[in-house]
Amino acid sequence: MRKRPWLETVLLLFMCGAIVLALGVRFVAARVIDERLWHQWQAGDRDAPFQFGDSASYWYLAQRIYRCEPYAYGGPDARIFRTPGYPALLAGWFTLIGDDDYWFTQRTLRARYAGATLGAITALLTYFLGRSAGGIVTGVLAALVVALYPGAIAMSVFLLSEAAFCPLLVVQLLLTKQAWRGSGHAFPAINSLLAGAVGGLATLVRPSWLLFTPAWAVAEVLTGRNRGSLVRAVAAVAGMVVVMAPWWYRNYQVVGHFVPTTLQVGASLYDGLSPHATGASDLQWAEEVARQVRAQAAGAEPLEYRIDRRLRDEAVAWAVAHPRRVVELAALKFARLWNIWPNEAEFRSWSLRLGVMAGYLPVIALAIVGGVLALRGVRLAGTFEPRLVLLCWLPACYFTALHVVFVSSLRYREPAMLPLAVVAAAAAVHLCGRGRFASTSGGD
Predict the structure, then answer these.
(1) 179-191 pLDDT, tens per residue?
(2) Whose C-alpha in 39, 76, 288, 324 is 20 to 30 A from the C-alpha of 351?
(3) Where are the alpha helices (DSSP H) in 182-283?
(4) 130 CB contacts (<8 Å, ≥6 apart)?
(5) CA 246, CA 125: separation in Å to the nearest integer?
(6) Which of 164, 165, 172 is nearest to 129 (CA)?
């Protein structure tokens, strides 16, 4: 069919517009959120500076890094409380904005602007993923979806690790796709190595990502069943190990044990599997167990390590003794993760509910359609291979498996919605009739 370069130019202009829109929407959201929290703080709410407790810990640890102080949160015994990825990013940002006060509206606002910029970059990366898999139309539509998707906007402007994790996730998937196609480098193993390295960086930002790269490597070997698959799998794991090794070595120096991510895994597991578990996070019961451990005579192991193991062991013992309740909790957590609107009461205004639902339902519905078509062997938008569709679905499956065990929230699904936006865009192009886009939809 005759090429239409003018149409591709128009689509590229739409893409640029989508990125500018993504940045503008996020800057406005950052300003609104920061001003609201600032007014709450001035009114006497001392917990207001950050919407989430996690944000306060990231900010504090970033200050410790910036000031070259010991990396610890909650006391000198809590030295493996958080992985250093996001605090290190904030610490780098402090070199530009300073950190003289714990809370100062201009500093937090500028940090939110940095997150907003990362959100716009994520939209651009989503365009590249969509274009390389399903063509320029798919890429432009995916970027537009991510630009306006409420969950992606929220994860950009709240001071949470997802702001840095989301672009890393998309880059890892893009490199994995390149490795499958053998493009970008003479040897696909190089792309796999880079994908694993990016996966390691993503794990240092969000420790829950730890098992994704090894799980993908195992799936690659089992489904590929050839030498190339084995080489790609080994290269990906090697790349991740190289990036994670310094953190592992540091943790071993601190507690004398191998700690792959943090010593909060036990608390998180107890939060999701205990007599008090509801599917939502409520760490007050875990804190009670921690107090009991602190009251005991000091042992040979560091206190932080003993608390983690005590909480982990109690969670596992309770789960073994109550399998029926574990299944019930898994169902509740699944519903919380994929709910059509927020679970928490503070976010249940009807305007917010309708906004979340309007952004979420079309994307997830089209992504499901795309997944079903891929399982039937259909190439979405003509070039989006079924295997790549399933790759884009893999983060959603991974986070679902993880959070039906640990606690669950809408927040934990948001990174997975980014590759699903690519699938949704390709499904929309496919359903609208690929023929009219034939001249501009070829994958790279």
Answers:
(1) 887 644 557 789 9
(2) 39
(3) 188-205, 212-224, 227-255, 265-272
(4) 138, 139, 140, 141, 142, 143, 422, 425, 426
(5) 28
(6) 172
